[in-house]
Amino acid sequence: MTTVLEHDLIGRLAAGLPRSSSQINGLHESDAELVRLPGSDLVLALTTDALAEEIATGLYADPWLIGWMLVTVNASDLAAVGADPLGLLVCETLPPDADPEWIAALQRGIADAAVAHELPVLGGDTNAGAAPHLAATAVGLVRGRPLTRCGARPGDLLFASGPLGAGGAYALARLLAPGGGTTVPFRPTARLREGALLREVASACMDTSDGAIATMDELMTRNGVGLRIERSVEAWTDPAALSAANAAAIPPWFLHAGPHGEFELLFTVRPERVQALDNAAGAIGWPPLQLGSVTAEPGLVVAHAGGYRTLDATGIRNLFGECGGDPGRYLRELRGMLPGRH
Amino acid sequence: MTTVLEHDLIGRLAAGLPRSSSQINGLHESDAELVRLPGSDLVLALTTDALAEEIATGLYADPWLIGWMLVTVNASDLAAVGADPLGLLVCETLPPDADPEWIAALQRGIADAAVAHELPVLGGDTNAGAAPHLAATAVGLVRGRPLTRCGARPGDLLFASGPLGAGGAYALARLLAPGGGTTVPFRPTARLREGALLREVASACMDTSDGAIATMDELMTRNGVGLRIERSVEAWTDPAALSAANAAAIPPWFLHAGPHGEFELLFTVRPERVQALDNAAGAIGWPPLQLGSVTAEPGLVVAHAGGYRTLDATGIRNLFGECGGDPGRYLRELRGMLPGRH
Q1: Cis amide linkage into residue B259, ω under 30° from 0
Q2: C or N: which end of chain B has fewer Cβ atoms within 10 Å?
Q3: C-beta separation of A146 from A84 below 8 A
Q4: What is the reported pTM?
């Protein structure tokens, strides 16, 4: 099996570090770390995520969006384990000569997202540094069994919490015209309400922060299964993202090749639990999208041009890193790995 | 009252951010954030601290020490609220071309400190960036009333968990001879065991991460009281730090003027609880050092040359920042604000 490049690094960094006997999940098994609280039936969900490359590469340039995303990427990890949000710690490293208006917009973005996600800011740390570096830690509580990436079985059905591809469309627009303002709207909200509901009905769950294909690859690897995407890509791709891709002559699958996603949830449900999903989702007016099903045969098989085609999910996932940030080379090589338009 | 410069910034950043109704502490009232867990008598202690300036200025250059300190600074905040450690999240931003041996030493430092503090690494995040940026979040649990910076009353006695000044001696050595290796030993261990014990006997507590005088200033401000340091500075200054200061013709008080401390605890105890402190401390073979007492009259009054002298604690605390990192100017101006040798 081809390895995931980012996992190599994390595995090397984690080797030799002491682990906790109260921790429920192993490395890469869930979007947030899950720790059973001694002497209680509560499980603490913890996650930390920084925006470093996203700022350095100009993917996120607007300070309000940086603040919004700092909260959202962390809230999304809580959503994927079905945790109720407790709060957020914010660790801000800012240049001493940073524009006060830039900082004010950043703080507004953090505050707006904290309110939208009902994730109060508990505290944090401030530092001076040459380049802005924003990190945050989100904390949540799970009562009962948390949701993890593990638990999908052949025969389960695969769903998305909403249309996918907005993250990819946004990133491609920034990548292809980094100077010009992008017209692809991007202001995702983490699916906390949906994640809490899925805890009762889903067999496995992960957010699409790294793009849909990377998420599918991870769910397949964690569970030793394959995925068969029976619905055509147009059926579950965000309409605005699809229009933007069409206008730029980019085939729809490119929107899902990552590594920048839209913070929706991808999850699997046992066939006998689909009605429970529909009932619970209907009660909050949320329509999950069915994409396909889990197969015993490993590999990602996708509907295309009236038939099916197998994609090299791990290869696609690693490609951006392997191209060392060269957008031309990335798109050229991607073209050979993905279905075109039809 | 003169304001503390760092608090200005934090206050501005925190303004407008939504707070949690489950949070026990207000801004600056405790070393870690304290959150009551709904439906339980447990209090979660959370703290996040990054090493940014410490690396950028060369204060910490040895990668093992950087890793050790990343854990220790966060563990020390848990100690100051009397929390039992649950675990740590590590957020590492590293240059893509970082020396693998440098990274390996960093990870060893993190692992060694995690073991020493019984603070398992739960997870984290890795990013690529031009300069190394290390942040961590520590999580702990408090059963019952947590310890905060608030609660000191006139008549309470002031203690330190151990001799102070090692952090100042280390920083001064690096500041005055940044290129040469320092011979001042510095490898502090957070006072987790002592903090857990103090939860039952102390009225207020704070760690000396920012130096003893800054810590005294903060305890005075939080409690609207003064402090009278009755023991001469030589009696509670770390002997190795004192020798180094003498050799460099630096008066002992300079070791405590910050902003880099040694991660001991400064705490206050009601007179009627001192025997309980002695009993509990004796049981674990720990000798707390009495420094002085809490006064109704605001201000820091210190024993010097057979008499007493008042120090401008807030002014001393702000001086390093006001000097913009110019060590010569800092030491010159400090000389006028502190007692000399006698």
Answers
A1: yes
A2: N
A3: no
A4: 0.93
Where does residue B16 rank: exposed (0-12), middle (13-18), buried (19+ CB within 10 A)?
middle
Q: ipTM strictly over 0.85?
A: yes
pLDDT per residue as tens digits for the range B254-268: 999 978 999 999 999
Contact B93 A52 (CB under 8 A): yes
Residues sharing a CB contact under 8 Å with residue B228, sequence separation 6 or more, in sequence order: B292, B293, B294, B295, B301, B302, B308
- What are the structure tokens assigned to B49, written together? 């601290």
pLDDT one-digit tens code per residue, A96-150: 899 999 999 999 999 999 999 999 999 999 988 888 999 999 999 998 889 999 9
Q: Do A17 and B110 touch (CB under 8 A)?
A: yes
Kind of pairing, strands A226-229 and A299-304?
parallel
- Name chain A contacts of B42, Cβ cutoff 8 Å: 37, 40, 42
Contact assignment for A89 to B22 by CB distance below 8 Å: no
Q: DSSP secondary-structure letter at B118?
A: T
Q: Give the single-character DSSP code of B341.
A: -
Q: Which residues of A touch B27 (CB under 8 A)?
A: 123
CA B126 to chain centre: 27
- Picking from A23, A31, A91, A107 by the largest number of B CB atoms within 10 A of its own CB, the best residue to mutate is A91
